[in-house]
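Deliverable D5.2: sample structural annotation.
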Amino acid sequence: MSHTALIRSHRKPRRSASTLAMRAGVAGGVLSTLAVAGASGSASAAEPVTQTIELPTLTADLSAQVAQSADATQQAAANYELQAERDAAAASAAKQAKADLAEAKKKAEAKKKAEAARKAAAERAASRSAERATLTASASTDTSASAGSSASTSTSTATGSAAAVIAFVKAQVGDAYVSGGTGPNSWDCSGLVQAAFKQVGVDLPRVSQDQSTAGTQVGLSNLQPGDILYWGSAGSAYHVGVYVGDGMFVGAQNPSTGVVERPLDYDPPTGAVRVL
């Protein structure tokens, strides 16, 4: 059976000229037959006319073109998807790189600040050590000359207000050194001296520079228990302590040692003042 479909025509088919002539030629021959069958033929409806329409055949070339078009469409979609994935990966990588760079800069800045702080601390320590060495050398003559006199004062016994000051500073030995500390369990050098003299009603300045000029200047060869010792120049001292007799002093030295009692030759002072 042919692959073409039989489709009923929706309109009366056109007749060609040859068909009309042939039908005219045979009209007479069949007229009698039509007359005989007229009675029945007139009552019968005319037979429907059908026409066969042949659809175009799908060729192999057209099939190949359709297949190629489908493959091309599929490949294009795959390419778009791959490009989208690459773009997303590139954006993510760029974002991560930016974050890593910011973190690296932050760490570098913190390291730079820490190094600067360490360098500044080292420079301050070196400057203080150099100043102490210079002052110690300049005072070594006075210290040597006053050794005999110091021996005579080292056996003196504090009384009255001086005894109260000495008792207070000795009671703090072992406490921590904290810059700016004023007690009760942590001190800096001038904070300890100020608190000690406050026990006997003497209101001293807060800082070492001012305490070094708060009383009468006395020579290191004429020390008495309760005198304030200072390191550095009078009016610009960087450290103070209290002479407690017997060639000893008490002071809040540094964060490593805290409040200690030490002999004068442990760290020879530059000068002293007497306020009692």
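Annotation notes: Residues 146-274 form a domain with the endopeptidase fold (from Nostoc punctiforme) fold (CATH 3.90.1720.10). The chain has seven helices and ten strands.
The annotation will be released with the project's public dataset once the embargo ends.
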